[in-house]
Design brief:
Chain lengths: 120, 106
């Protein structure tokens, strides 16, 4: 059974860096092709893809946010860490991590999401 | 960058068929995935690779994809199908989501 769970701060100040951790189980992130992605959703708005890291450590980022994002993994701890710099109130929203099984497939399994508010 | 266009809202009478479209340039050449998100809940995959249903998803949910439009079809719509629906594709090693469609069951 694949599960994922996000953790991190619920409140960050403008200009600060957001760091979120995704702890997963039920799969290994050292297999080429599979991956863990991050998706966010501002309140009342649509899903927006942010980043994805593959088992072979290849990384992909949203072109519009690439300069602010970093994604890494710790296979031994079954963790993926996501950072977004220079946070702004418009970055407020629920941040999800999700399992990607490869082959241009979907995000099969999602975490419960964590709400991050950016405010001074 | 690649864009996916969905109608903001779709309404369907109880028991009738709802169709939610997802438009994109030559989307028929891509695998389209659909997610359902009920109010206050996390997204759930309901269709993958255009027309495949994950385990546990009712047969009432189906999908098609051709040309510039992919379609999610929900037959015999139920009150419990009220949700936001998002399409998603891969384009040039990036993930793209549609803007979402709110389905209302009347």
């Amino acid at each position: 059974q694949i599960t994922l769970k996000e953790s991190g701060p619920t409140l960050v100040k403008p200009t600060q860096t957001l760091t979120l951790t995704c702890i997963f189980s039920g799969f290994s992130l050292n297999t080429s092709g599979v991956g863990v992605g991050w998706i966010r959703q501002p309140p009342g708005k649509a899903l927006e893809w942010l980043a994805l890291i593959y088992g072979d450590d290849d990384k992909r980022y949203s072109p519009s946010l690439k300069s602010r994002l970093t994604i890494t993994k710790d296979t031994s701890k079954n963790q993926v860490v996501f950072t977004m710099t220079n946070m702004n109130p418009v970055d407020t929203g629920t941040y999800y991590c999700a399992y990607y099984g490869g082959y241009s497939g979907p995000f099969d399994y999602w975490g419960q999401g964590t709400l991050v508010t950016v405010s001074s | 960058s690649y864009e996916l266009t969905q109608p903001l809202s779709v309404s369907v009478a109880l028991g009738q068929t709802a169709r939610i479209t997802c438009g994109g340039n030559n989307i028929g050449t891509k695998n389209v995935h659909w997610y359902q998100q009920k109010p206050g809940q996390d997204p759930v995959l309901v269709i993958y690779e255009d027309n495949k249903r994950p385990s546990g998803i009712p047969e009432r949910f189906s999908g098609s994809n051709s040309g510039n439009t992919a379609t999610l079809t929900i037959s015999r719509a139920q009150a419990g199908d009220e949700a936001d629906y998002y399409c998603q594709v891969w384009d040039n090693f990036a993930v793209v989501f549609g803007g979402g469609t709110k389905l209302t069951v009347l």
